[in-house]
Specification:
The complex is a heterodimer of chains A (about 450) and B (about 550). Chain A is built from 23 helices and nine strands. Chain A has helices at about 10-15, 30-35, 40-50, 70-80, 90-95, 100-120, 125-140, 145-160, 165-180, 180-190, 195-215, 240-250, 250-255, 275-280, 305-315, 320, 325-335, 340-350, 360-375, 380-390, 400-405, 425, 430-435, and strands at about 55-60, 85-90, 220-225, 235, 240, 260-265, 285-290, 410-415, 415-420. In chain A, the strands form three sheets. Chain A has a five-stranded parallel sheet with strand order 2-3-6-1-7, sandwiched between helices. Chain A has a two-stranded antiparallel sheet with strand order 4-5. In chain A, a hairpin with a 2-residue loop joins strand 4 and strand 5 (about 240). In chain A, helix 6 (about 100-120) runs antiparallel to helix 9, helix 7 (about 125-140) runs antiparallel to helix 8 (about 145-160) and helix 9 (about 165-180) packs across helix 10 (about 180-190). With about 550 residues, chain B is mainly α. A five-stranded parallel sheet of chain B has the order 2-3-4-1-5. In chain B, helix 3 links the parallel strand 2 and strand 3. The longest helix of chain B is centred in the C-terminal third of the chain and has 26 residues, at about 510-535. Classes of the chains: A alpha/beta (about 450), B mainly alpha (about 550).
Chain lengths: ~450, ~550
């Protein structure tokens, strides 16, 4: 498939909303100027790592689908060219994001670090790993399994370089965490009282890894933890959410390992009533806002952001033959500056044409479909609140507004100041128009 | 790799279901993983739609497979991966029955949790995946598996028949205004004339007759609504309001708001109806009239359902139910159960719908009002119909019919006939279905019930189209359309959809000829304009 695409089929397949772009992909467009984010979140993140003597844990937030993974892949590449050993951790493949606790995250970090070190041929003191493994087996395994592991450790010690038992054990743990509910409960019950041991032993491993990395000529270790922002937002009662428990109440545990880390965090958490507590635990944080397509207050079109989004499409589809000009504008309007939504809209529009270009009518139908999608997921009591967000262009620090950011009915933008607005397709829904028209009477 | 699509439009192959054309386009274009959802609330129609799509794909040289889940499946990804033989690249996979893993009354069911968690793994599938789900399940998936949902390439709806079915269901809902339903048009006229005479008499008495006139205007408005004479009915409702305000009769004003709401609801102005009902609610609350409050929540729920504000509808029905339970009113409790059942059914949550209706029928001995019992039977029959349980559908339809016959309730009988027709239709027995709808039509004609005439005519048109007689069908959908336009009934979209369909099947020339036969040359242009303006995503 040649890019940019010239046929309908190639164009359709070039606009895949499920793909985060690899670092060197030809389709990558630097959207920093459009995000109105001076210097860019990735650049700031990188600079801090380069300049800091002490390991930093930096939070990285942005809406689902706003391009975080693409930007983090770029950060990885840049840090690697700066001489760092970077481990990219895909949280969603190691964790059950519907039910995540700090020990799960710490073990996922150890597992990924171990795998990356092995892949790069960086050797860490074997005894350290064996000790960790035996301790871990003692804590989480049944007696019979423990004996098996101990025997295997002994035999492996004799034929060092054979099967990576440690990796196997970690994989088994990951399996328990990501699948069975019962096995997860059991492991947690055993591991929780040993959390300080986990931190100490894990830290020994991380320190040893950093030393080994430095010996290879690399500057230091950086862990990038992507997709942790996808942990489910659940109301746990008493004004607590699952995300607050993980990142705030038990947030100190996530800082247990001393090495540079860039950790994705749900954007909604930055609007939690407990955001001050979050700041106290994680003072370094960066936000990747939406691409701004309209000015604040007047909502007049803003050409810088819009042109960049046109370029996003232009890298994938030949613009002149691919889109009627007005269709392009309609698609960008309806996207709200959300890159994945833009691609989703384009995919939707392909369903309404038999050949290129995408017509204005097809673009309108695509926008209507995205509008209908939103009609499914917005809770009834949000309409009035959404109308208020539209007026104020700001959100409150409470659970409802957190949910609005989480489900993308409200998007965050930035230019010198942070501001929010209701997603443009939500504005088109009759419920929203009704909520804006007049204050609805409160029912019982 | 980059072969252009064949020149002909996929429309030509999906004549029966043009709303599926966009989905077909997606499946023809996708080269790797692409996620699509098809919303379909009626299992039998879901099967038909998938069969039609698969057949069309085959004609286009694209292979496809169907994964039919007959029991809950927590690990959809694992189930897909274990397909034997393994899916080939580019082969499309349709999944039916996944809604069994998404119970409508359970938050975050494990199947959705796993779907969200395993999202990345779905990218390993190198073929397009179509999940066919009812509305409630799709809504729940969008909220409770948001990351998986975010990867969709298309959400498609096969909903026009569902709209028809939903209408059939809501016909079941009784209202305060049904008292005149069984009277023929001339009898209604006689009543109206008598009441108008009395009103003229009272008007000569000036202010002292204002209270009586409130009641009279109200009754006249009610008769007029049953005759679909909306502007006149509205005029009388406004008079009720004015007079009630004059004499400080707040409850009288509430009846006026109720009437205005009913008129707005009947003509498809659901937002307006909701506003009127809100006023009724406020008055009922001020007077501590708990039954009135609950009744109005039922009305608000119904209009919310029409507006497709399903969550709001559910909240309202549940509030009504709670109050009626506290008041110990079994008939109204049963009605709330029925409303919740109808809502669940509209969303495709058939098991939940059945549970609600069964709860309602369990109160049978306490109800007394046999009309309510018959209505619940219709609801149960409708659920069984969409679930494809023909025998049960017929059993409940016949039970309703027997009750209505014993009561001499002819409107109810027509509804039961329609119900039995729907059961036969979904079974594919078009001739039997036509017979039942014909019976319903004859009763409605005898009664002069214009809305019911339109409904039966429309269903006959649909049946004839489905039976492969689009030429015959045109007349029936035109007849229905004319009535619905004349009386501002909101279901004109159903007729326009099917006329559009007949137009595509018959070809432009033949279709226009038939139109000209029935509506004359001037009418042809009007009908064509209406069809062209009708929002249909497949066009």
């Amino acid at each position: 498939m040649g890019l940019p695409a010239t046929t309908l089929r190639d164009a359709f397949n070039a606009c895949d909303p499920t793909q985060a772009l690899p670092a060197d992909d030809d389709r990558y467009v630097d959207l920093t100027a459009g995000r109105g984010d001076e210097g860019g979140a990735v650049a700031r993140c990188r600079k801090r790592i380069l300049r800091s003597d002490q390991p930093l844990i930096q939070l990285f937030a942005g809406h689902r689908g706003c391009g975080k993974s693409t930007e983090l892949r770029r950060l990885q590449r840049e840090l690697e060219s700066d001489g760092y050993f970077v481990v990219y951790v895909e949280a969603e493949s190691d964790l059950d994001l519907e039910d995540t606790e700090p020990p799960d995250v710490l073990i996922a970090l150890i597992r990924n670090l171990d795998t990356a070190l092995r892949a790069a041929g960086v050797a860490v003191e074997p005894k350290l790993l064996d000790d960790f493994m035996l301790w871990f087996a003692e804590v989480v395994l049944e007696k019979t399994d423990r004996r098996e592991i101990a025997a295997e450790v002994r035999s492996e010690a004799e034929i060092r370089g054979g099967i990576p038992l440690f990796a196997q054990l970690m994989a088994r743990f990951s399996g328990w965490i990501t699948t069975g509910t019962e096995s997860k409960k059991l492991v947690r019950r055993r591991l929780d009282p040993q959390i300080s041991q986990l931190l100490d032993r894990g830290q020994l491993f991380v320190s040893a890894a950093r030393s080994a990395i430095r010996k290879t000529g690399k500057k230091d270790l950086v862990l990038i933890v992507d997709s942790l922002d996808r942990v489910a937002l659940k109301d746990l009662g008493n004004g607590r959410t699952s995300q607050e428990v993980l990142f705030i109440e038990r947030g100190e545990l996530l800082k247990g390992f001393h090495c540079h880390q860039v950790v994705t965090v749900p954007i909604s958490l930055l609007f939690s009533p407990k955001v001050a507590n979050l700041n106290a635990i994680f003072p370094d944080r960066h936000l990747l806002p939406m691409v701004k397509i309209a000015l604040r207050r007047t909502r007049e079109p803003w050409s810088v952001g819009r042109d960049l989004l046109v370029e996003v499409l232009g890298r994938r589809v030949v613009l002149e033959s691919g889109f009627e000009q007005k269709a392009l504008e309609e698609l960008i309007d309806a996207s709200g500056g959300h890159p994945r939504h833009l691609l989703t809209l384009v995919r939707y529009a392909f369903d309404f044409v038999d050949e290129l270009p995408i017509t204005l009518e097809a673009a309108r139908k695509a926008a209507r479909r995205l509008t209908n999608d939103y009609g499914r997921s917005i809770p009834q009591h949000h309409w009035k609140l959404l109308a208020q967000v539209y007026e104020r262009q700001a959100v409150l620090n409470d659970a409802d507004h957190q949910l609005m950011l989480f489900n993308l009915s409200v998007l965050e933008y930035q230019n010198e100041e942070r501001w929010c607005d209701v997603h443009p397709v939500v504005v088109r829904l009759p419920e929203f128009r009704e909520a804006r028209k007049k204050p609805r009477k409160r029912r019982q | 790799m980059s072969q252009p699509l064949p020149a002909e439009s996929p429309k030509q192959e999906l004549e029966g279901t043009p709303e599926l054309v966009p989905l077909l386009r997606l499946l023809l274009l996708a080269e790797g993983f692409a996620l699509a959802f098809l919303e379909c609330n009626v299992p039998i129609e879901a099967e038909r739609n998938v069969a039609e799509l698969r057949q069309t794909l085959e004609v286009r040289g694209r292979r496809s497979r169907l994964l039919r889940l007959n029991e809950p499946e927590e690990d959809l990804f694992g189930r897909i991966r274990s397909q034997s033989p393994p899916m080939a690249t580019g082969e499309a996979l349709f999944v039916l029955g996944f809604e069994q893993s998404i119970p409508s009354q359970v938050e975050y069911p494990p199947a959705l949790t796993r779907l969200n968690r395993a999202r990345e793994r779905f990218r390993e599938l190198l073929f397009p995946l179509v999940l066919v789900l009812p509305r409630y399940a799709l809504d729940q998936l969008s909220r409770e598996a948001p990351d998986f949902w975010a990867w969709r390439s298309g959400v498609f709806e096969a909903r026009i028949k569902q709209a028809r079915l939903a209408r059939l269901l809501t016909d079941v809902a009784r209202s305060d205004f049904s008292v005149y339903d069984s009277l023929s048009e001339p009898r209604k006229g006689d009543h109206l004339e008598a009441l108008q005479g009395l009103l003229a008499e009272l008007e000569t008495q000036g202010k002292k007759s204002e209270r009586e006139r409130v009641a009279l205007h109200r009754r006249i408005a009610v008769i007029l609504t049953s005759m679909l004479r909306w502007p006149e009915a509205r005029g009388h409702a406004e008079k009720v309001l004015k007079l009630a305000k004059n004499i400080g009769d707040e409850k009288g004003a509430a009846t006026a708001y109720h009437l205005l709401g009913w008129i707005a609801q009947s003509t498809g102005s659901y937002e307006e109806a909701s506003d009127w009902y809100q006023k009724v609610l406020q008055i009922a609350e001020r007077h501590g009239d708990q039954a009135g409050v609950a009744f109005t929540f039922g009305l608000l729920g119904t209009v919310a359902q029409f507006r497709e504000a399903f969550e709001e509808a559910r909240e309202s029905f549940l509030k009504a139910l709670q109050i009626f339970e506290e008041l110990g009113r079994p008939a109204e409790v049963a009605q709330s159960y029925s409303q919740l059942g109808m809502l669940a059914m509209t969303l495709g949550a058939h098991m939940e719908a059945r549970e609600w209706f069964l709860k309602a029928i369990q109160l049978e001995d306490k109800l007394g009002d046999r009309t309510v019992i018959a209505s619940i039977c219709l609801g149960l029959g409708a659920v069984a119909t969409v679930q494809g349980i023909y025998e049960e559908a017929v059993k409940w339809g016949r039970k309703a019919l027997t009750i209505f016959e014993e009561l001499g309730n002819r409107t109810g009988m027509a509804q039961a006939f329609s119900q039995l027709g729907a059961a036969e239709e979904l079974r594919g027995s078009f001739d039997e279905a036509l017979e039942w709808h014909g019976k319903a039509l004859r009763i409605s004609e005898a009664l002069g019930d214009r809305a019911a005439i339109a409904s039966s005519a429309s269903q006959i048109g649909v049946l004839l189209t489905e039976r492969g007689s689009p030429g015959e069908a045109v007349l029936w959908n035109l007849r229905s359309l004319a009535v619905r336009l004349e009386h501002e009934l909101p279901e004109i979209g159903i007729d326009l959809h099917w006329l559009s369909h007949q137009r595509e099947t018959l070809g432009e020339k033949r279709f226009r000829e038939l139109l000209a036969e029935h509506v004359g040359e001037d009418g042809v242009k009007q009908v064509i304009d209406l069809i062209d303006k009708f929002p249909n995503d497949s066009k």
